[in-house]
Specification:
The chain is α+β, with helices and mostly antiparallel strands and 263 residues long. The chain is 24% helix and 30% strand. It is built from seven helices and 13 strands. The strands form three sheets. It has a six-stranded antiparallel beta sheet with strand order 6-7-8-9-10-11. The protein has a five-stranded antiparallel beta sheet with strand order 5-4-3-2-13, covered by helices on one side. Strand 9 and strand 10 form a beta hairpin. The longest helix is centred in the N-terminal third of the chain and has 20 residues. The chain is globular. About 15% of the residues have low confidence.
């Protein structure tokens, strides 16, 4: 997440805050092998694709080098997303009683809300040799050099089962995450019209439990017609400049993530 994301959250908060004060069965056709086949094809062309699929910042290729078996633990999750895509997000069943049950149990709630291109990639966030799976959505093709998908979910492995790294969170419009160098996971949120924040996590020694390492909040109140913000870090008030600088210090970006479209 760039500082502009913080600015957007703050501007949106100010606008909403000001306004608030002024106006007080499933027809599944996809085969379960689809996602793994797509992945196997992309692995064979990995060296070529690394030069095409980029975000912004520092090389992350070393954290994506792993045997295919390491990623096959996620085959079932990828198949669930493939079924959703191939069945047009089950839009024809939206008004039926079976609609919710059509989606795989590992698919988050917010990614279902509108049809879009769905992507995935693998990245060893904590460097323990086991890849994490990142699911994202976006309208732009992967070949677009400015491609920056909107993250929707993050999965890890507990040694037996695939697990969501943040099981209590639904990522989408108000809450989302970015991954940065040195194993940093940034979760940014807007919990109300007057409050937003950014929390930083690392994955614990067990390889799948998130541990919060730092926390920032921006809380607004109105003075007349103008929103006034109070900034804090771990409960201690800081200046806006400190708020922005301290957050930016974590945001050492990655490059060369191999985003693969789910079909």
């Amino acid at each position: 997440m760039k500082i502009r994301k913080i600015a957007r959250l703050r501007i949106a908060t100010a606008m909403i805050l000001s306004a608030a004060f002024l106006f007080a069965g499933c027809g599944t056709t996809a085969q379960k092998e689809t996602a793994p086949k797509v992945f196997e094809e992309e692995i064979s062309n990995k060296e070529e694709s690394q030069n095409k699929d980029i975000t912004n910042g520092k090389d992350a290729a070393d954290h994506q080098e792993a045997p295919a078996e390491n990623m096959n633990i996620y085959d079932d999750v990828l198949s669930q997303y493939s079924d959703m895509v191939q069945n047009d997000f089950y839009t024809n069943l939206r008004d039926s009683d079976t609609y919710e049950s059509c989606f795989g149990e590992d698919i988050g709630l917010e990614i279902r809300t509108h049809k879009q291109d769905i992507y995935y990639t693998f990245y060893d966030i904590d460097g323990n040799g086991t890849m994490e799976l990142i699911i994202a959505g976006g309208e732009n093709a992967v070949s677009n050099p400015t491609f920056s998908p909107w993250n929707y979910d993050l999965y890890g492995y507990d040694g037996t089962n695939v697990v969501r790294i943040f099981p209590e969170m639904e990522f989408g419009y108000r809450t989302n995450f970015s991954i940065y160098d040195h194993g940093v996971i940034e979760v940014f949120y807007s919990s109300s019209a007057a409050e937003s924040g950014v929390d930083f996590y690392k994955i614990g020694a067990d390889g799948f439990t998130p541990e919060r390492t730092d926390s920032f909040t921006a809380v607004a109140h109105l003075e007349g017609d103008e929103p006034v913000f109070t900034y804090s870090q771990n409960g201690e008030e800081i200046t806006e400049e400190e708020y922005n600088a301290n957050i930016k210090g974590y945001e050492i970006a990655l490059t060369a993530l191999d985003w693969i479209q789910i079909r």
